[in-house]
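task queued by scheduler; priority normal; single chain, no ligands, no partner chains; default sampling; output format set to structure tokens
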Amino acid sequence: MSGSKPVVAIIDYGSGNLRSAEKALAKALQNGGLDHQVVVTSDASVVRRAERIVLPGVGAFADCMRGLRAVAGMVEALEDAVRSRGAPFLGICVGMQLMARRGLEHGAYEGLGWIEGDVVPIAPSDASLKIPHMGWNSLRMVAPHPVIAHLESDRDPHAYFVHSYCFKTAESRDVLAETDYGGAIAAVVGRDNMIGTQFHPEKSQAVGLTLLENFVRWRP
């Protein structure tokens, strides 16, 4: 690992679409002419020193949280880098949900507790809407933020979702974008140097690449 380039660390904890995220970030860096190094790692010391951090996640909340805690020193490294040092952080899908206080999937499980709220089952008002919510859905920006800047330049930005649970934040100000699936669902949440997407930017084509490039440029 070169010491000359700033590192974007993608955390490998046994849960996440790592190669797709790595390839999409590399493409976003190329598009933006950004000279960063993307590193997929399960080494807490690499995460602790990284300029910015990406936490992907696929599967059940409890399994992902358990997997993250099982990597030696990783939760402590995240707390140090993100909460103490202020490294920019991006959570993707369940990686975003892990920022919550609790996940209520097959029980109640403690999350990282970075953003107050619970991860709850999607409950669409239209009974014909299937769970999981899977496929392309439109995004509505509800608050300005550098990481979602320019997405609204597309008259109807769409992103790719695959999930059965959603992040219900305690404070509405922590929701930056929504999608509608029989009711409003948080599509992007964030505060301070932390942001998360319920959708998969690595599968969301131009919208996802723009968001990833914005994330690497972001100086919170």
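post-processing summary
- DSSP finds six helices and 14 strands in the chain.
- Residues 151 and 207 are 6 Å apart (CA to CA).
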